[in-house]
Amino acid sequence: RPLVTAIGGAVTLGLASVALQAQAATEISLGHTLSSTSHYAVGAQAFKETLEELSDGAFTVTEHTSGSLGGEREMIEGLQIGTVDIVITSTGPLGNFVPETYVLDLPFLFEDYDQARCVLDGELGDELLAKMSDHDLVGLAWSENGFRHMTNSRREIASPADADGLRVRTMENEVHQEAFRQMGARPTPMAFPELFTALQQGTVDGQENPITVIVATNFWEVQDYLSLTGHVYSPSAVLGSPILLDGLSDEEREWFHEAARASAEATRGEVSRLEEEGVALLEENGMTVKTDIDIGPFQEAVEPAYEIFTAEHGSEMLERIQAQA
Ligand code: EAX
Predict the structure, then answer these.
(1) ipTM for the assembly
(2) What atom of ligand 1 comes closest to residue 210's alpha carbon?
(3) What is the 8-class DSSP label of residue 111?
(4) Which label site among 111, 158, 174, 213 has the fewest CB atoms less than 10 Å from its CB?
């Protein structure tokens, strides 16, 4: 057959396969509440790179930052109904969906990063991830937000008495709310995307978040005092939508798990880096930082939160975590 036709055919075939490939790529939406400079964004990029590489471009990931898909509670609902595919979220609102995760939100449960990461990477962490499928969610990996510290616009907090009467925004989490009530504060649960404005307008006096979040959200613009209370470790989770993941092959699903693990590792690396450098940065931006806090009185103040928790949720998980300390 004439050469020209052969070349023409090859060109057509080539174009057809490019078109096919483009059609086959599935766009994955990934949402989180933090800025594009945050530790979640670092984790989102690692997820994207890993998934796109493992799948050879069959999946492409689009990141939605700063709560553009809603707060964490809304995004978790989005996973259940399939309007978002992947979410990186703190455990803040997660207990409303998977009550078993509330145990992780108990104040002063974990002593340091090593212990928290070890528990989450172990049997108990795996069990909790598996539990999520009973609640129309896919638990892909435990990632990290960090130890939470208090900020406010009123006064330095050195003891629970200083928190008395303070209007503190908490996450939409009953364990956290109880802990702050026990400290004498007035907890106000609120979704993260509303927080900056609420602090700016004085709807609340303070909030609590890890160094990473305080840095990535420029909270120094609206908060003067930071106290390194480290009152609770805040895990995050990389969650998937069962509506997407249940329809994939085992091999494809494993790519998502691997991408989530890469995401968690990258996020934890960024948390560790900012634990070292973040406080100086906040001081440079004008925050008064209280570092040498005696946490004993805080621990005593929140003790009743443990009793309330175990009365409602039992003590099995809690004892297993404490045994690993
Ligand atoms: O997950 O709501 C919060 O304070 C969280 O720490 C934040 O959205 C990151």
Answers:
(1) 0.99
(2) 6
(3) -
(4) 111
Nearest ligand 1 atom, CA 236: 1
From ligand 1's centre to the CA of 289, what distance in Å?
Answer: 21
Name which of 220, 230, 178, 216 is nearest 199 in CA terms. Answer: 220
29: Cβ contacts below 8 Å, ≥ 6 apart: 61, 62, 64, 69, 84, 85, 86
Q: Give the atom of ligand 1 at the shortest distance from the alpha carbon of 169.
A: 4
| pLDDT tens per residue, range 101-154 | 999 999 999 999 999 999 999 999 999 999 999 999 999 999 999 999 999 999
**pTM for the whole thing?**
0.93
Give the distance (Å) from ligand 1 centre to CA of residue 17: 44
Expressed in percent and rounded to 5, the helix, strand and coil fractions of the chain are 55, 20, 25
Q: What are phi and psi of 296, to 5 degrees?
A: -50, -55
Which distant-in-sequence residues (6+ apart) come within 8 Å of 231 by Cβ? 107, 108, 147, 148, 149, 150, 179, 208, 295, 298, 302
